[in-house]
Amino acid sequence: MTLTPMFRFLRHVSITVARIENNRAVGYDVFAEGWLQGLRAWGRPADVLVMPDGALLVSDDRQGAIYRISYGEK
Q: In angstroms, what CA-CA distances link 48 with 4, 30, 38, 66, 69?
């Protein structure tokens, strides 16, 4: 099983990553969420860009914002 940088937007309020086996999506896992409060979406992720350092830029077309998601040492 491999994880690939294929993203889709589930109900326009979360970002999921596809698990790929034999060139077919076999499952999806939520990668980023939190744009939904109750039944109201306060933001909507619209696109993802992978930066050279591995960070992701997520554009939010409802808030007019770009979020940077990165990782680091704990």
A: 14, 14, 24, 9, 10
Residue 28 has a CB neighbour count (10 Å cut-off) of 14
- Higher pLDDT among residues 3 and 13, named by residue: 13
3-state secondary structure of 1: coil
φ/ψ region of 62 (left if φ > 0, alpha if ψ in -120 to 50, else beta) reads alpha
pLDDT, one tens digit per residue, over 9-61 is 445 578 888 899 999 999 999 888 888 887 788 888 888 999 999 899 999 98
Of 51, 45, 37, give the one whose Cα is nearest residue 65: 45
The amino acid present at 44, given as its one-letter code, is: R
